[in-house]
Write a structure and sequence with these properties.
Number of strands: 16
CATH class of the largest domain: Alpha Beta
Structural class: alpha+beta
Number of domains: 5
Radius of gyration: 30 Å
CATH topology of the largest domain: DNA primase DNAg catalytic core, N-terminal domain
CATH superfamily of the largest domain: DNA primase, catalytic core, N-terminal domain
CATH architecture of the largest domain: Alpha-Beta Complex
Distance between the termini: 82 Å
Helix content: 40-55%
Number of helices: 24
């Protein structure tokens, strides 16, 4: 696997790029005094609340709270993970990103991983060439034209052709035993020792080839659609070192490449559905790779969009699949996210439907697709007599455990309100029944806490109030060298609160890099799980003058420790009083005994 990117390279990268150039190439900025401003790319607004500060190499939106350094901006704008954002910024200025390997084994795995990816890219290019030049390509070209595909869309999705025959890839790429082993490891060859004539043979033969790309655009596997009478009709690469079906979605890379902002994703079932929709200008569809939509798939999509629409057949099988997808959605539906369900007429799929009614009408059908709450309650009440007490009780019994899978928030409360309306029970009664039935429920997923200290209980996300801890964090970010000049008492580690957890993590980073500038330090913070939550701190009013930072920081730490010790003393005193009271009650009543 790829090694870690050295911190020294990240520091160098941030010192070389100018955040104004990074942002201005994507968002129109205008100079306003020392800073630059523009319309925020992360939420809809009419008046600019988005500002870029060249001095701090920092951006912040006063409207939605988004903020960070150049790496953070690219992550949010391009929907990229941290390493990919670094790769993109480095590429823009002509730098190659180095990697650190933790062990010889890690280096060996990385080498193998990269070798397989390189081979798959070569095979993909070879398949595309066969579609253009192979003598037997006419059947493939005829098929693609019959599906209404243009040469441009075939190019965009990298479509190719695997000629008929048992050893085309073997002859083109299997020049020695090592190369044959790689072909086996990528799943492009099948090994069958019992077949004396062809113990090794090509997996894909006489098929239209669809390259499957990861989110970085690297070919990790293939899907193949048969042109003759072989079975199965569609065939996917097996899972390999570089390809895991449950973690990938066909068309996701192409969608992100085509669209900078994706308002929704449409989840369909097949390669041709994705391609046909793109051919008709609908570039936000993706398909699972022979598996049902998983929670992992949905997590990936919700990172880039607030809404997903599932597309299914309108028959019983389609509705059962939709119900399974709904259950995968529930734990992920934080406030602001939504899911819909589009059920197509019998015998139709997205490919045929968009060609029949046109792209405009198809997109209009997405707007009126069934919302999750409607599908949820309609499905549960379909076989229940809601005019009877028994029916209402049954609805409450089966619906409540499902609603409790939703994250706490407004949407969950609205679902409970709707359940209350349909059953006639107050929310409090429903909550009581939910508590009673909870032991029978599957364990709930752990909350996605924003930060924690190793060896200590995880805490909820940080609060937005301006607490002493947050003030101390702000001061430390402004001047990381404080950590060398003040006394950080180890007793602070005993204070258990979300804000103190955060302060301790920032102190830990400052100890590691005490000579960092504010910009460098924020770069390191932004790479952590809690980095994006700290961006607002630098926008706070900074009343403390530079020469007073050290004194105020020490005073805050001293006050926190003093307040904690006073609470501890009170707790210990109360404990002793309770124990004393218990001891008195245990003394026998001498008068009564006599």
């Amino acid at each position: 696997m790829a090694g870690l990117i050295p911190q020294r390279f990240i520091d160098d990268l941030l010192s070389r790029v100018d955040i104004v150039d990074v942002v201005d190439s994507r968002v129109k900025l205008r100079k306003t005094g020392k800073n630059y401003s523009g319309l925020c790319p992360f939420h809809q607004e009419k008046s600019p609340s988005f500002t870029v500060q060249p001095e701090k190499q920092f951006y912040y939106c006063f409207g939605c709270g988004a903020g960070g350094n150049a790496i953070g901006f690219v992550m949010n704008y391009e929907n990229m993970d941290y390493p990919d954002a670094i790769e993109l910024l480095a590429k823009d200025i002509g730098l190659e990103v180095p990697r650190e390997e933790s062990s010889p084994q890690a280096r060996k795995e990385k080498s193998r991983h990269e070798a397989l990816l390189e081979l798959l890219e070569g095979i993909n290019n070879w398949y595309q060439m066969q579609l253009r030049k192979h003598p037997g390509r006419e059947s493939a070209v005829t098929y693609l034209k019959s599906r209404g595909l243009s040469g441009e869309i075939a190019r965009d999705f990298g479509l190719g052709y695997a000629p008929a025959g048992w050893s085309n890839l073997l002859e083109a790429f299997g020049i020695n035993e090592e190369e044959k082993r790689k072909l086996l490891d990528t799943g492009m060859l099948i090994e069958n020792p019992d077949n004396k004539r062809n113990p090794l043979y090509d997996r894909f033969r006489d098929r239209i080839m669809y390259p499957i790309r990861d989110q970085r655009g690297r070919v990790i596997g293939f899907g193949g659609r048969v042109l003759g009478n072989d079975k199965p009709k569609y065939l996917n690469s097996p899972e390999t070192l570089v390809f895991r079906k449950g973690e990938e979605l066909y068309g996701l890379y192409e969608a992100k490449k085509k669209l900078r902002k994706i308002d929704r994703f449409l989840i369909v079932e097949g390669y041709m559905d994705v391609i046909a929709l793109a051919q008709n200008g609908i570039h936000y569809s993706v398909a699972t790779l022979g598996t049902a939509t998983s929670a992992n798939h949905l997590r990936i999509l919700f990172k880039s969009t607030p809404e997903v629409v599932f597309c299914f057949d309108g028959d019983n099988a389609g509705r059962e699949a939709a119900w399974r997808a709904l259950q995968q959605c529930l734990p992920l539906l934080e406030d602001g996210r939504s899911a819909r369900f589009l059920f197509l007429p019998e015998g139709q799929d997205p490919d045929t439907q968009v060609r029949t009614i046109g792209a405009k009408a198809f997109e209009a059908s997405l707007e009126i697709a069934t919302r999750l709450p409607d599908f949820f309650f309609d499905t549960l009440t379909a076989r229940i007599d809601m005019n009877s007490f028994e029916g209402k009780a049954r609805l409450g019994k089966i619906a409540l455990p499902l609603i409790e899978k939703l994250p706490k928030g407004i949407f969950r409360q609205l679902m409970l309100d709707e359940l209350s309306r349909r059953t006639g029970l107050e929310n409090a009664a429903l909550a009581h029944n939910g508590q009673e039935s909870r032991p029978d429920l599957p364990p709930a997923p752990p909350p996605a806490y924003s930060h924690s200290v190793p060896g200590r209980p995880k805490q909820p996300p940080i609060r937005s109030e301006w607490t002493p801890c947050m003030k101390a964090v702000n001061l430390l970010i402004r001047k990381p060298s404080l950590i060398k000049q003040v006394n950080v008492d180890d007793g602070l580690g005993e204070i258990r609160s979300p804000d103190m957890d955060l302060l301790l993590k920032v102190i830990e980073l400052a100890r590691a890099w005490p000579d960092s500038t504010t910009t460098d330090f924020m770069g390191r913070i932004y790479a952590t799980a809690y980095g994006s939550q700290l961006t607002q701190l630098l926008t706070r009013e900074q009343i403390t003058p530079e020469e007073g930072i050290e004194k105020e920081f020490q005073e805050i730490l001293d006050k926190l420790l003093k307040a904690y010790r006073q609470r501890q003393q009170k707790t210990e005193l109360l404990s002793k009083l309770r124990q004393h009271h218990a001891d008195i009650n245990e003394i026998p009543d001498q008068h009564h005994e006599s």
